[in-house]
Specification:
alpha+beta; six-stranded antiparallel beta sheet; 5 helices; transmembrane
């Protein structure tokens, strides 16, 4: 379900419930306090249907969709350095074939960081940090996807606000038409996350 249609669907279901309640009232079916109360609750019950459907779809996606490790493998192939904690990664995938897109945030170990920074053909790209951030924003991943941040901002959100990001490309690696990496600038000895956006396979 596209998020842009979620609000209108809730409104349409609410109005459908109100219409049914009005028809029942007109037909004289509401003859007891219990039936009248049920008619009042009917529009709200109908409005809950899209919310219930969205919750079920989200649950099904989390249960039957590919894991973060599987998406990491799809991005980079078999990893010679075992991933000790899958919780260090967040990933999501969209589309298939030519429109396949995978977005990944990883808190890499030194070995993982070294592997990512030595991908074949990895070079700096002309893509701006703002354009890279849009890759996730258009899918509604603002709660964990990269946001560019400038030095001196003390209210940055850890894990998302990326200090002076440098954008690299390794287009063609592992069959991806576009493969872009955002490397955040470390600050005071921290180990900032890395963000990966791959498109088209």
């Amino acid at each position: 379900m596209w998020v842009i249609w979620f609000g209108p669907m809730v409104v349409v279901c609410f109005l459908a419930g109100m219409t049914i309640a009005a028809v029942l009232l007109r037909l004289g079916k509401l003859r007891s306090p219990r039936s009248a109360l049920a008619a009042v609750a009917l529009p709200f019950g109908f409005a809950m249907l899209p919310m219930l459907a969205l919750a079920l779809l989200s649950l099904a996606a989390s249960m039957f969709g590919p894991t973060n490790i599987a998406l990491h493998g799809e991005l980079f192939g078999p990893d010679p350095t075992p991933i000790s904690s899958p919780g260090r990664m967040l990933a999501d995938a969209f589309g298939a074939g030519p429109t396949r897109e995978i977005l990944l945030r990883i808190d890499p170990t030194p070995a993982e960081r070294e592997r990512l920074m030595t991908l074949p053909g990895l070079t700096r790209t002309a893509m701006t940090p703002e354009d890279f951030a849009l890759r996730g924003a258009r899918h509604g991943l603002g709660n964990w996807w990269m946001r560019p941040a400038l030095p001196g901002i003390v209210s940055r959100k850890p894990g998302t606000d990326c200090l002076s990001p440098a954008i690299y490309q390794a287009d063609g690696f592992n069959g991806w038409r576009e493969l872009r990496l955002a490397l955040c600038t470390p600050e005071s000895g921290d180990a900032p996350p890395m963000f990966v956006a791959a498109y088209g396979r």
